[in-house]
């Protein structure tokens, strides 16, 4: 088993954190995992992305040209990475900010209104967790329980009060695609 | 008081809002409707009552040199040299 | 210790600290900065010495001072900063005080960029600065190796009274992986007998790199060469993968070697008899092992994130026996496994043709 | 090259327009960062003194690393801290050019202090624009020699400890001690009034150079909202309330020859 | 021009001046100082730019500035000073501004001593500082060559917009020999179109070494590599002596090569079929010629005033075809002809034995 | 280790003897060079303060390159100009040691100005003995940043031209501006009276360090008969008549804490 | 005036003559008979009239720390503390 | 033809100059020639030496382990270099400062009271020229005329007034050994 995920978006959208969260969860589940960031020249604004590779064997390359899964939080990222996803892979995108049907038909396209859903929870910053919940429901790279545990174990102490909200966001993301999958 | 006006290059604006708080007439606001290519809500002149004096303070504080300032032409006073 | 998810830079810093680092002097530079930042917090917490120097020139000379006092001391930087340290490193080598330097390499020449690169290979393996010596150079390819090699760096530095450079590309510094940190060691209490501490109750110690007379300087150089020979004999380290039943060998270090691992896996899946040799010590280069392997195979492909620097060491080791190919990316571009696979295929096919013709 | 974006409305005259010497390129600076303000001032000064075609800008390593892209003048990028040395090389072989270095506090006061002190000592006819934002901006917020006592940065997480790292350096005061320095002043960019004063200082500094009077430096207290963790406005307030008390604004050296520029009507 | 009795350092200074040197920036260091001193007088007399910099770091960056203005500019130093210039040199290479540096090498590492050495071979031929490039390196073995190579250095630097280093050991700098200086050239009036002079009536010029994106930096690096390939094809230079009817070749540069010349003469007198190849360009190394010769001979002996640095280039060039021996002195010791002769004999005898056995 | 060469004649007491901290080795200095005098003063100060077994001397590159041989204390040889950085490394890990750099004007004021300024800024608890002889002695007489206007040297053969190379640097004045500097004075070695004063300054500087009060520097105007082309006596006269007017002797900074050493009875 | 004397380590002396010109009593001369191992004529005390006061000025100016100075022991005055 | 000479003495004895003078003369006579100095650590005092190689073919090594001729101006130099002279070579020494008969019998030993002779000319500094005159008389590496011309051509202009005295010194050196040779 080897999963390769690319998370991309504006700086400030929590792209790096959600990738790390997944990585922590993978580690806690006993997998091999790598996380690697990439930044643009701007200190604020600009885009950022990270790769997460999860495997049950030692991981060679932590970067992959054609990841099996891409998660795009903003339009430029969607445009840049849709084409790179491996055949048969999937791209999940923040439908609140990205209007598209997608070009490629050989991959799964998952539209998640992550920002709107986060807004419903009263905190726009949770869009990343919503996305993760949705993603893992469609593609159970790890279980949602693994993420819950990881959140509990690795949330910085000064943000601990936000844990319940994060768990809610995860569920909300899971629910919205579960609904859709059911359709 | 002389009448003035400004032009804000919204594509260049980074929405820092420094002009806004610097304007003595309080006639600049953030344009929450517009999102420029950089992803910022830019500043915009909102001067229904023609209060802008063309004092250029906004232009002087703008870190991105987005603002041009104009003022009504006044006949120059004759000064005995 | 349990595994933790650690960023390379932070892991190196924490490993050094746990190895008993007593003093750190450095200057911020991307993509190394988290290392300095981590120590700015932890060293102070532990009441050890942390000082942000005014420059890399000052940093290396502060290190030189603290090393002359016989404590475990380290600096870290990235390529342009390492260029500025060349004179200081040469003095340190000429004074034989144990020193550890971490170089998180970035794209060059000049200001270049902050992306991962392996462009300092020559700068660190061929003697840093003027004169005849070679630092020991350790090249980790994972966060765990970064930790292990950092600890080892201090031990080697003290064993040989020499400079040990941990040379990692920016990707090793920036990535996170689960890894295990070593247990915390206390700062050593005693100082070596050559150390400068104030000559209380003993004859004065002197640390210097001057030998005005040619004969004396040469004698000192011969002593260094002697030490280097010993290191060359005892310390080469490497990692190999799929090196039995081989037609062709891929050689790469650090991130390039790690990505080549994936490419070699892919090549094996495609039925090519390809293996990997990943030098963990760039100097001493594992030349003996490579030349052994060279006897068995038809060809070597070197993969680097530079214009072909380790390539020279590979060519020297295989000594013209077999063709040596090269695949390199420069300026901060990290090669992808598929590119390396393609290079392997290209090389392998030519090879087959050639082998058949003979 | 014209920066006019907009024809003046009827019956109106232009009070302020983007200077010609400023390139059209958008900058990579964070929103509200006053690096942009000092850029504009320098460009205005080039325009007003007719120096666009004589100027050579020496950018330095720091957030202003790309400033060579932002001016419509000949320019180059020095190694970290070495801008005054590079400027010396340029000026000695281009004695009629207006050679200007643009340096941050990490660049000038830390790694580059030797080069700026010696340029000043030699009375090198160059102008230094010195952006003091009490931090290393580009590398993500480490302590600078100008960081304030107690200031928390990413390399002084418990606040700058003056016992261990000393007190902040007052560079302009220091350089004003040297005989070769003709003009050394400190200004601030935290409000319009001070920005206007800073502009005048830039003009005087460039005039000092063009008249061959010696080394000139304009220090500008500047904000780094990003690494200070503040909004742009809070950051300007911090400049005013925290930095100015430690770094008093004023003229630290104005050589007589400079005071007599324009027949004594120095700006 | 008639021959004059000239000291190497002075000859280089005067030659540079006559080649149209417009600006010099340097810092005193033995055994290079007479070069700076000579220019401190002559440049001022001719109303050109001479400035004693505050350090070698400043000197190389002043040179960087003046070179960016497109003038003929030079610095000079000796080993520790050249170590301090590494960062600046890397910036210069990354900006492609023509620059000449003279390195009068001394014994190291560290402060070492002021005696002649060839210990900077790696530091100057393997890229100065970080990143992928190689300066052109000229190695004179006489005062006349020092003059000729200095003039050539400026022409090559401008032809390729590259760094040219004249690397001579202290003995070349300190000795006097009759030699002929070139005629005086005026300082060139025009500046190249890329030069920084103030953008009067043209678009602004920019000199920089930053390429933030990996792809752009790589493209720039490929351009440099392209240029280096061209240099590698066109510019290798060497001197050979007694290379017909050969059993064994001695390879040495600079003073070591010159002394080897005497040793080769002595060996020929004793009936040994020995010749000399003296590389005049250390980079590009005359590898092609050497590998041609390697086809004809039984063995090579490398002679250097270091621990064996050019040795690697020789081994790379002969590619393991034939054994490569080494005779080196270090730390400022200059080998005597009789020592080299002895090394030749030792090597030659073993060779004969070996040859017979086969 | 005793330096007594000679039993005191009967009925006589020792007034002056070679200090213990001075090694027996003969120096390589030229006849009449005052490097020897400052060595003796430093050794005397080590003896008097009982610091021989606590001292670490950081020799620098210059004529004093071998000074590490001439003291009977732990010592090392720094790279050119970097003695204050090396001393910083040594002091931070040996906080109880008496760390002293011994530097010439080329070393400290030219190539090493950054390191000494930052050591002073940090208030590094080290002592700098600064030998200002207005020339590069060791390399054979080139111009130093402290060479006097018009002074002929081997790299200013027409005399130091202040238009091109600026005015001499007054290092002690400069360093006295920095908050971390506790003690900064200039003395001269041209006669017995001044040598005695210099000695007191060295004592105070070392006491400053041992009390942890901050950075201390004693500049000593010194002679270089060889490169000035003078006899030893002429050279001392030149120090007095030419150097002192340009480099006034005196106390440029004596922090209150230093003034209060020994209960206010500062030597 | 107290009587003094000095001892000059002639092997260490470099013959710079600074002690000579500094001595207020003019009792030091260069010893042109002796050439030490370094090749210098060293200084020597020439004090037939016992003029040396033990003032130590010679020792203070000597760059090579060649001179030891001695003075007649005087009974210490009793000082009331 | 190849001549190799080593001049050695205290700094200040004119060792370097006399070597250079010989080199100039050799060049003017159309020979290949090299001159190379070597200094000790001291700025003043200490010893110094230089090698001069004169040849009618290109010169390889400018330094030689066993020079054919050595000229010693002081005792330490004599002691250091007597043993190095090539078999059948010669060592000339300043007999005013060096008391010896020499150890080696396989080389010529030429004692020249150079300092005393120079003293007779009223200038101790001329000992080097006296030595050269003597040396070239015993071993005519170059003619005395060649030296006379070289002196005329290369004496620094501010020392030109000393030219006659230099010529006298040369003759005096030549005469003293001519006498002795005649004996
Ligand atoms: C030799 C070298 N060392 C370190 C760096 C990393 N570096 C880049 S910018 C910078 C500091 C910039 O701070 P400052 O000069 O204050 O400018 P700011 O970003 O605050 O405007 C550093 C340390 C470098 N590029 N080169
Ligand atoms: C990096 C480097 N640059 C240059 C030198 C050569 N150098 C040796 S001593 C010296 C100057 C010494 O002058 P100063 O510090 O004034 O000491 P002084 O000899 O006058 O006592 C120089 C430039 C060197 N050793 N290292
Ligand atoms: S010109 Fe003055 S009044 Fe008008 S918008 Fe700007 S700041 Fe406000
Ligand atoms: S100051 Fe400039 S950048 Fe900031 S909001 Fe106003 S117009 Fe926009
Ligand atoms: S990091 Fe700070 S200094 Fe740099 S651009 Fe952003 S606000 Fe400005
Ligand atoms: S050269 Fe000058 S400073 Fe150096 S030892 Fe001689 S007199 Fe002293
Ligand atoms: S002690 Fe005084 S009087 Fe006696 S010799 Fe010395 S200087 Fe002269
Ligand atoms: S001062 Fe010292 S060295 Fe000089 S002559 Fe007198 S005793 Fe000798
Ligand atoms: Mg800053
Ligand atoms: Mg000096």
Q: Could you write a compact summary of the structure shown?
A:
The complex is a heterooctamer, with 2 copies of chain A (about 180 residues), 2 copies of chain B (about 80 residues), 2 copies of chain C (about 350 residues) and 2 copies of chain D (about 270 residues). With about 180 residues, chain A is α/β, with parallel strands linked by helices.
Helix and strand topology:
The complex is a heterooctamer, with two copies of chain A (183 residues), two copies of chain B (81 residues), two copies of chain C (358 residues) and two copies of chain D (267 residues).
Chain A: E1 2-10, H1 15-28, E2 32-39, E3 47-55, E4 69-72, H2 75-81, E5 90-94, E6 108-112, H3 114-120, H4 127-138, H5 144-154, H6 163-182
Chain B: E1 4-8, H1 18-22, E2 28-30, E3 43-45, H2 57-61, E4 67-72
Antiparallel strand pairs in B: 1-4, 2-3
Chain D: E1 12-16, H1 35-48, E2 55-59, H2 67-70, E3 74-77, H3 83-93, E4 98-104, H4 105-111, H5 113-121, E5 127-132, H6 162-165, H7 171-176, E6 181-188, H8 192-210, E7 215-221, H9 225-228, H10 232-246, E8 250-254, H11 256-259
Parallel strand pairs in D: 2-3, 2-4, 4-5, 5-7, 6-7
Antiparallel strand pairs in D: 6-8
Helix pairs in contact in D: 1-8, 4-5
The structure holds thiamine diphosphate (TPP) (2 copies), iron/sulfur cluster (6 copies) and magnesium ion (2 copies).
Keyphrases for this structure?
heterooctamer, B: 81 residues, alpha+beta, Alpha-Beta Plaits, two-stranded antiparallel ribbon, D: 267 residues, alpha/beta, Rossmann fold, 7-stranded mixed beta sheet, 8 strands, globular, binds thiamine diphosphate, binds iron/sulfur cluster, binds magnesium ion
Characterize the structure shown.
- The complex is a heterooctamer, with 2 copies of chain A (183 residues), 2 copies of chain B (81 residues), 2 copies of chain C (358 residues) and 2 copies of chain D (267 residues).
- Chain B contains 2 helices and 4 strands; from the N terminus they run E-H-E-E-H-E.
- Chain B is α+β, with helices and mostly antiparallel strands and 81 residues long.
- Chain B has one domain (4-71): Alpha-Beta Plaits, CATH 3.30.70.
- Chain B starts with a strand and ends in a 9-residue tail after the last strand.
- The mean pLDDT of chain B is 89.
- Chain C is an alpha/beta fold and 358 residues long.
- Chain C has 2 domains: 4-198 and 205-234, Thiamin diphosphate (ThDP)-binding fold, Pyr/PP domains (Rossmann fold, 3-Layer(aba) Sandwich), CATH 3.40.50; 238-357, Rossmann fold.
- Chain C has a 7-stranded mixed sheet with strand order 3-2-4-5-7-6-13, with helices on both faces. In chain C, strands 10-12-11-14-15 form a 5-stranded mixed sheet, with helices on both faces.
- Residues 353-358 of chain C have low confidence and may be disordered.
- With 267 residues, chain D is an alpha/beta fold.
- Chain D has 11 helices and 8 strands.
- Chain D has helices at residues 35-48, 67-70, 83-93, 105-111, 113-121, 162-165, 171-176, 192-210, 225-228, 232-246, 256-259, and strands spanning 12-16, 55-59, 74-77, 98-104, 127-132, 181-188, 215-221, 250-254.
- Chains in contact: A-B, A-C, A-D, B-D, C-D, C-E, C-F, D-E, D-F, E-F, E-H, F-G, F-H, G-H.
- Chains C and E meet through helix 4, helix 5, helix 9 and helix 12 of C and helix 4, helix 5, helix 9 and helix 12 of E.
